[in-house]
Amino acid sequence: MSNVKSPKPKVKLVQLHDLKFRPMISAAKIKRRIREIGSALSQDFEGKKPVFIPILNGAFMFAADLVREFRGDCELAFVQLKSYAGTGSTGEVRVVLDIERAKIEGRHLILVEDILDSGRTLHHFLQHLAAQNPASISTVVLLRKPAAVQFPIEVRQLGFDIENKFVVGYGLDYDDLGRNLPSIFVLSE
Ligand code: XMP
Ligand code: MG
Predict the structure, then answer these.
(1) What's the burial of 55, exposed, middle or buried (CB within 10 Å: 0-12/13-18/19+)?
(2) Dist. CA 80–CA 162, nearest whole Å
(3) Which residues, in sequence order, are bridge partners of residue 97?
(4) Average pLDDT over residues 64-84
(5) Is 55:80 a contact under the CB 8 Å cutoff?
(6) What digits encode the pLDDT tens for the residues 23-66?
(7) Is 162 in the pocket of ligand 1 (CB under 6 A)?
């Protein structure tokens, strides 16, 4: 027996601008979960040729990995949304890059989003899509902050529920930095 304390394992922090972030979800864990989600979607949408709709910029990496786990025919159409915080909780969401109507009408849509925070962005965009008569709309989200949700969104497939803290990596940014990190990091207090 020894009284010598084993040294704390070193956590590798990442610095972006003025803030430090610590590891939260490893690349391997993300990969495993996406494989499961891809498998479930492949079964659910067999023969339906769904249109995956990644919401730029944040969902680009998630979507790229997700569609590679989809077995069968599918299409891709990208959108870009801009949210305005406004004065308080009633923010507006503007569609900056939209999809041609032919890719929506009568099609099975799979929205791909990086993170569900308040739910405002998806809530507005789902209404925008629904107005164009798709055959169905499903939502796939990599991360969700249950404590932050103000607009409840029905999620078909979820990667991970996380605590209500700011995260970066795997597509998510802090002031444009951190999107290229292959795993998820959380703000370190
Ligand atoms: P809402 O509140 O509309 O927010 O659900 C969704 C969008 O807000 C961004 N967001 C984050 N980005 N780390 C980020 O890098 C976070 O922890 C975070 N929480 C929300 C993100 O762009 C998402 O699409
Ligand atoms: Mg985003």
Answers:
(1) buried
(2) 24
(3) 80
(4) 94
(5) yes
(6) 999 999 999 999 999 999 999 999 999 999 999 999 999 999 99
(7) no
Tokens of 94: 């503007």
CA gap 151, 172 in Å, rounded = 21
- Atom 24, ligand 1: residue with shortest CA distance: 115
Residues 99/77, Cβ–Cβ less than 8 Å: yes
Nearest atom in ligand 1 to 117's CA = 5
* Ligand 1 close to Cβ of residue 121 (< 6 A): yes
* Residue closest by Cα to atom 18 of ligand 1: 166
Residues labelled catalytic: 117
SS (H, E, C) 60-104: HHHHHHHHHCCCCCCEECCEEEEEECCCCCCCEEEEEECCCHHHC
H helix runs in the chain, sequence order: 27-44, 60-68, 120-130
Ligand 1 and 119: CB distance under 6 A: yes
